[in-house]
Structure formats: C-alpha cells, structure tokens
Design goal:
With 155 residues, the protein is mainly β. It has one domain (11-132): Jelly Rolls, CATH 2.60.120. It is built from no helices and eight strands. Strands 1-8-3-6 form a four-stranded antiparallel beta sheet, with no helix packed on it. It has a four-stranded antiparallel beta sheet with strand order 2-7-4-5, with no helix packed on it.
Amino acid sequence: MLPSLDSKWFPAIAPAAILDNAAATGIAIDTRGGDFLEIAVVIGASDIAAAGLSLTASATSGGTYTAVSNSVFGTDAGIDGTTSVLPSATDDNKVFLFTVDCRKLPFPFVKVLFTAGDGTTGTYVAAIARLSNLEKSPTTSSEAGLAATTASVAI
C-alpha cells in the first residue's frame, strides 16, 4: 500500500456560499486512531482579510470546544518559526495548513474556526483534513472517509 493511502479523510469546512463578517461552520474531526492531522484551509475569492483562523478541540463531537494551543493564525508561529499570518484580501486560491500531533491534543475531536472579515463581498472558504499514521489502515474508500477512489497508477 502506498503511504499516502494509509490515511483517513474528513471534510473540515464544507464548500458553501460566500461569507461576509460571519463564521464558517466547522465540522468535527475524530482524531482517535491516528497520530497526525493535516487540515488544509483553501481560501477562494476574497475581498477582505480573515478575522480569525484557529483550531478548537472537545472531548465529544457535540461538546464544548476550547482553543488548541499554538493553532492561531496571526498569533502563533508557523513552520519557519516566524509568526503566521491570517489570510489577507489578496490570498485568493491559497492554502493555509494546520499540522497537528494528535498525541498532544487535549481532546480527540477537532474543529476549524474561520471567521471572514467584514468586506464588500466576503470570502469563499473550504477545508479538508487528512488523519495519518493510523492504528488500522483503511481497506475501502468508505473506511478512508472517501466517496470513491481510483486505482493507483505507477508512472
């Protein structure tokens, strides 16, 4: 099996209508059974900087979510050690990535918090998450959190 197939996928923010001065609805991600989580937040067309982008965690999927340490864009450090930046009005079609060591999370359920700034039009946003280093490898598309997959292709 290819290492990239030894993962489980989750929608983190479903594609939706443009947001202006509003929060996206984050979808709970169950990190149990995996060690590492990557969440790619994709910014579409935008005319205003984001007002917030961070992670929260909870003991249950429908419970009370609290902030996850070191996960606030615009405040906490990025991979290069410098302070990360919030998505700006000129970040159309860019990806902002959370990398999480699930073994250090306070709780197993994670949600992305994204708040669009107050612009003339607003911001399109969507996010997808990949849980890896799984205790049990998926053997079907469904177990991997996918609607369908294609066969692996060797070039």
